[in-house]
């Protein structure tokens, strides 16, 4: 698919799958990084790990401590608050539990170092953290959407809830919850591997040529070749329980509602809360995280997020929400200008020749079907009912009517399936260490 982005010179670029928008290599945007660069005269770049809207992330060797780390190089226009927020969260005494592993603090990354680099596009904050394998979304894509083993899914979902609960307890909204921000931790230390051994194990850096529309000249501060991210050989259908430890990632959108207002949510459209569209002038807060948490939990247990569809857009996502959750609140319904393309004024579906996006349809097709076909454990009736009972209050249309993360922690699904699944992981981990 051809997509374009723009730079200050009115140059448009062809999109490259899995790579940041090259048009963001402009004033305020990404900092150009190459393999072999030494950042802060200490961190030698070995490979690329990935990117986000406001950063690129690199695998680097800390030449002082001889260890592999992840270096996140933020865009020049990023808020710069991520390091501060992570430091506050990691040092907080408000854990709500005697054990940081059970409190959720253990799923928050530790910042090992911070520094700034200066380049042609501005000044960029850099965060150094432990090296992780890949995101859960990456692993799912590499396995063609195959689902996790249920024991693994329960453990990951429980950790995800604990991490969000820990943030909320300390007054922070994450602001960008989705499976692409769930990182799988490394089981083994890779520090002993040389660069050559690392490349032999996980592939050498690969490059894709950067191309412009109309063959316009590439500006001098834009890389002439894009570096493709390292492909860790991790598949969701092959992930074992002992490999299911996670870190919550990307705190660039995080904030304290008591200290600042946010009016927009930048999560992918299929898991974006409906108030982002229908109440754009109302400040976001903890309930927005609750909505995206619910969508993500479904995406962990199933093959995709609850409202995800092919080539999603705001209208398509809203129509799925109405089919699953019922008609929008009257004032939101009136603001949805294209509703007549999908529904009658009574909320009845116009196109009755296709399947309906019901809870049962989504559950069967995204949670059960592929597991059943592969002889994997499927979700039992009691667990399904408990899952529905937990998720539906999280997906109340009005933010004020949604449950809190404390309610999620106390739900039957968390207490009887989620937390026992995580505790089983910890016992397995303890056994391996012994």
Described by the principal axes of the CA atoms, the overall outline is globular
Note the run of SSEs as H and E.
EEEEHHEEEHHEHEEEHHHHHHHH
Overall number of domains: 1
CATH third-tier fold name: Transferase(Phosphotransferase), domain 1
Radius of gyration computed on alpha carbons:
22 Å
Strand order of the largest sheet: 1-2-3-4-6-5
Estimated helix fraction:
25-40%
The CATH class assignment is: Mainly Alpha
Distance between the first and last residues' Cα: 50 Å
Q: Total number of β-strand segments?
A: 11
Mean pLDDT: 92
Q: Output the structural class.
A: alpha+beta
What is the level-2 CATH architecture name? Orthogonal Bundle
Would you kindly provide a written description of the structure presented here, covering whatever features stand out?
By secondary structure, this protein is α+β, with helices and mostly antiparallel strands. It has one domain (22-426): Orthogonal Bundle (Transferase(Phosphotransferase), domain 1). It is 33% helix and 15% strand. It has 13 helices and 11 strands. The protein has helices spanning 82-91, 100-103, 136-142, 150-169, 195-202, 275-278, 286-301, 314-325, 330-335, 359-373, 381-394, 405-410, 412-433; strands at 38-39, 43-52, 55-62, 67-74, 113-119, 122-130, 132-135, 182-185, 206-209, 225-228, 246-248. The protein has a 6-stranded antiparallel β-sheet, with no helix packed on it. Strands 7-8-11 form a 3-stranded antiparallel β-sheet. The longest helix has 22 residues, at 412-433. The chain is globular. The model has no long low-confidence stretch (mean pLDDT 92).
């Amino acid at each position: 698919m051809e997509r374009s982005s723009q730079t200050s010179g009115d140059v448009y670029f062809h999109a490259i799958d899995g790579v940041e928008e090259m048009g963001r290599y402009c004033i305020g945007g990404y900092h150009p990084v190459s393999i072999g660069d030494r950042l802060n005269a200490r961190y030698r770049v070995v490979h690329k790990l990935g990117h986000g809207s406001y950063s690129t992330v690199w695998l680097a060797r800390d030449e002082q401590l001889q260890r592999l780390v992840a270096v996140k190089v933020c865009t020049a226009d990023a808020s710069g608050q991520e390091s501060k927020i992570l430091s506050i969260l990691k040092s907080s005494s408000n854990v709500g539990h005697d054990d940081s592993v059970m409190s959720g603090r253990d799923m928050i990354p530790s910042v090992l170092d911070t520094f700034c680099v200066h380049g042609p596009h501005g000044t960029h904050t850099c965060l150094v953290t432990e090296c992780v394998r890949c995101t859960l979304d990456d692993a799912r894509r590499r396995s063609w959407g195959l689902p996790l083993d249920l024991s693994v899914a329960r453990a990951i979902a429980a950790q995800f809830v604990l991490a969000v609960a820990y943030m909320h307890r300390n007054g922070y909204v994450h602001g960008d919850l989705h499976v692409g921000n769930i990182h799988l931790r490394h089981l083994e230390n890779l520090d002993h591997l040389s660069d050559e051994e690392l490349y032999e194990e996980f592939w050498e850096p690969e490059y894709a040529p950067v191309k412009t529309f109309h063959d316009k000249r590439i500006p001098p501060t834009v890389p002439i070749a894009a570096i493709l991210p390292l492909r860790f050989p991790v598949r969701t259908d092959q992930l074992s329980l002992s490999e299911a430890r996670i870190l919550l990632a990307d705190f660039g959108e995080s904030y304290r509602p008591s200290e600042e207002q946010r009016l927009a949510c930048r999560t992918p459209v299929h898991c974006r809360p409906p108030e982002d569209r229908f109440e754009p002038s109302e400040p976001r807060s903890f309930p927005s995280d609750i909505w995206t948490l619910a969508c993500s939990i479904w995406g962990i247990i199933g093959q995709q997020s609850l409202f995800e569809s092919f080539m999603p857009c705001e209208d398509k996502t809203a129509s799925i929400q109405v089919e699953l959750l019922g008609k929008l609140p009257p004032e939101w319904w009136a603001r949805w200008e294209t509703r007549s393309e999908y529904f009658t004024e009574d909320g009845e579906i116009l196109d009755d020749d296709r399947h309906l996006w019901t809870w049962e349809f989504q559950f069967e097709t995204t949670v059960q079907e592929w597991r059943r076909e592969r002889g994997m454990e499927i979700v039992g009736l009691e667990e399904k009912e408990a899952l529905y009972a937990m998720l539906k209050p999280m997906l109340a249309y009005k933010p004020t009517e949604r449950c809190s993360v404390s309610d999620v922690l106390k739900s039957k699904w968390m207490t009887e399936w989620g937390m026992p699944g995580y505790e089983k992981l910890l016992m397995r981990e303890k056994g391996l260490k012994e």
